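To: structure desk
From: M.T.
Subject: fold request, one chain
Message: Could you run this one when you get a chance? Sequence is below, nothing fancy, just the single chain.
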Amino acid sequence: MSSDEKRNRLADLLSSAFVILADGGIETRLKYEFGIPLPEFASFLPLFDEAQRPALEAIYRSYIAIAVEFRRTMQVGTPTWRAHPECLKRLGFKKPEDLHRVNAQAVALLQTLKSDGAAHDLVVIAGVIGPRRDGYDPHNAPSADEAHRYHAAQAAVLAALGVDLLYAPTFASAAELRGVARAMAATGLPYALAPVVDASGRMLDGNPLADVIKLIDETVDPPPLHYLVGCVHPTRFGQAFQVIRRTPVAGSRLIGLKANASTLPPEELNRLDHLDAGQVTVFGEEMVALRRDYGLKMLGGCCGTREHHIRAIAEGIQRMEQSAFSKEDFVGTPRL
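Reply: Done. Structure tokens follow.
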């Protein structure tokens, strides 16, 4: 499938779907649920350990099973958030071919899981690229030009491996986000950006997300397919969205959330030495409310979430969808 065909397919899916699900936490599950040490939060490491690989596969299978059960499209991200050149070298992957080798193993895992007949038409594989340094700390983040040069290699590798789109979650710096957007755009593939924001609707470097969206859309060609927010709790996102949607264009471009289970802000969550999984039922209700109140079209999980959290979203959306269509039969199109 060509890049244009992938772009059109994703746009059609987003337009026609009541909600597209996204997967949940990977790194926190490996670390706390399966007890796997995870230096650098590098979720690709179990791919190269026979004893640990089944855990990574089980995590992905648990999310894909929900997509199949509820017959709902799901975006599933490759475990490559830390599979970029500097982090690979720090973790011992120092050969020139390791960038391709590691990312290829990650993509192959998801392609194999997607090849199951029931999952094939439901799973959208997102090639994940993470920040060069810290996703919660904008200090020492690269400039836009430096980020463009740095992230271009991984973006090109993932695009050549056949992912459906490129995806940049958990970026704290607006400059680095612009740079990775340029690197992704250069591949021709559709791509999405999912920075971290605070409750005031600002990225962690202080830049208003609405301004960042406007700047990227105006200066990067092609612009992102859409934007999400990643790695914040739904209540914190709700506060931020109240600000972001005051700029109608930015509000319409922000279509989803991959949420943390914990209500703690990212900088505090990053210091925890244990898992904060929150309350699953409440989490599901809060996520469904984002669809009801703000029309968000893509909902999933990040740190601290498991398959139970994604199932809670799926069940809540199913009830909401059934209720909406039931009312439509009698009183016309519901106001969602």
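Reply (cont.): Strands lie at 20-22, 74-77, 123-128, 165-169, 191-194, 226-232, 254-259, 298-301. Let me know if you need anything else for the meeting.
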